[in-house]
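RECORD TYPE: inverse folding
INPUT: structure tokens
STRUCTURE:
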């Protein structure tokens, strides 16, 4: 059974690479685009009020297989393989290959070499940019945007501690499908943090439970370590140490640090047991 979240296939149309694997009326090669907007919603259906399943950040690549003629494009993100509908206006022809990424929680892009200029945009952690030169305190992108140098890093340079990345999001509002400091969900927090540290990470918590690390034995779960992942059905948290977790959750409507046992008890009272604890 193909996961529809990761399989660009419908009854009427599917990606060419799936020919022979799925049934569809026709198969198309698709076209590569990059996301131009700071964040773009990837929705379940081509409508502004449809569920946002995830977000694409500036610089992400996406292969588009269909357009509905009403401002929506259907495709698959390159980084995590997620499939959905994205606003056409968020897309741009693939430009210069990215060289750097935003490493700050959030940064501003200025139209010139001065922080007093009105920003062109605000970019989220993990956004990919093509830097063409440095100008004193700024990194200059191929669009001519000026970003503070201390807020960007080369693509190949990885954070040492993904938990420290997640901790930076404490206080961020909870947003279903969110992937930035303006709003993030539980699995988005894990994905952004692990990606910053160089670990490939699927998007949703069930995919993360299936694909990351090894499951701890009952004895091992008594001694949680920094970086362990605690899973419930539809939820994931990151252990900070033996007694606390950091997670984006709808109970607090924010990313918070919480006592692990207190959180487990609270979530159990709401009807959900821990399904696994994984160690990377």
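DESIGNED SEQUENCE:
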């Amino acid at each position: 059974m193909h996961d529809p979240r990761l399989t660009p296939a419908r009854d009427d149309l599917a990606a060419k690479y799936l020919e022979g694997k799925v049934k569809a009326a026709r198969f198309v090669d698709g076209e590569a685009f990059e996301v131009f907007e700071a964040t773009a919603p990837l929705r379940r259906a081509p409508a502004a009020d449809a569920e946002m399943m995830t977000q694409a950040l500036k610089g992400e690549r996406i292969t588009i297989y269909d357009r509905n003629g009403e401002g929506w494009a259907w495709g698959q993100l390159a980084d995590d393989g997620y499939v959905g509908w994205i606003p056409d206006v968020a897309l741009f022809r693939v430009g210069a290959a990215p060289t750097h990424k935003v490493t700050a929680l959030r940064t501003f892009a200025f139209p010139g070499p001065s922080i007093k200029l009105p920003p062109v945009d605000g970019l989220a952690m993990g956004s990919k940019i093509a830097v063409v030169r440095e100008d004193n305190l700024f990194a200059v992108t191929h669009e001519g945007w000026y970003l503070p140098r201390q807020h960007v890093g080369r693509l190949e340079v990885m954070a040492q501690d993904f938990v420290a990345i997640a901790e930076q999001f404490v206080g961020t509002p909870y947003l279903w499908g969110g992937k930035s400091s303006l709003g993030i969900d539980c699995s988005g927090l894990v994905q952004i943090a692990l990606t910053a540290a160089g670990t490939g990470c699927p998007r949703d918590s069930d995919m993360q439970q299936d694909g990351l690390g090894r499951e701890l034995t009952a004895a091992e779960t008594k001694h949680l370590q920094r970086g362990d992942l605690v899973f419930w059905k539809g939820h994931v948290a990151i252990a900070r140490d033996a007694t606390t977790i950091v997670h984006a959750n709808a109970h607090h409507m924010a990313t918070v640090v919480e006592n692990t046992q207190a959180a487990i008890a609270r979530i159990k009272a709401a009807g959900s047991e821990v399904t696994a604890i994984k160690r990377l």
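NOTES: Residues 186-196 form the longest helix (11 residues).
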